[in-house]
């Protein structure tokens, strides 16, 4: 999340919404930010070129992709981004 807001003032919020579903049983997390849009699918296909012990960041999406049952990114009409992570249990 620090990359999404790196050029924005600290007063710009990042919102996190957590939903527990019962049918089917699922945990859904939505992270809303106001950062610049990016090519989500390309980022998932292109891992960091630095070895893990040298990279300062850039592992978050790869970790989420391994853990989540569904992972999606949407650029909203209000110029916010929404990252949705779903895990069924």
Automatic annotation (TrEMBL):
Signal peptide: none annotated. Gene3D superfamilies: Histidine kinase-like ATPase, C-terminal domain (3.30.565.10). Residues 2-87 form the Histidine kinase/HSP90-like ATPase domain. Pfam families: HATPase_c_2 (PF13581). InterPro entries: HATPase_C_sf, HATPase_dom. SUPFAM superfamilies: ATPase domain of HSP90 chaperone/DNA topoisomerase II/histidine kinase. This is Histidine kinase/HSP90-like ATPase domain-containing protein. It comes from Coleofasciculus chthonoplastes PCC 7420.
């Amino acid at each position: 999340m620090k990359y999404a807001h790196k050029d924005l003032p600290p007063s710009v919020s990042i919102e996190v919404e957590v939903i527990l579903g019962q049918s089917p049983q699922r945990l859904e997390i939505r992270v809303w930010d106001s950062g610049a849009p990016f090519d989500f699918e390309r980022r998932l296909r292109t891992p960091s070129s630095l070895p893990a012990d040298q990279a300062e960041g850039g592992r978050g999406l790869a970790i989420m992709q391994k853990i989540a049952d569904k992972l999606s990114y949407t650029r909203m009409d209000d110029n916010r981004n929404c990252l949705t992570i779903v895990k069924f249990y």
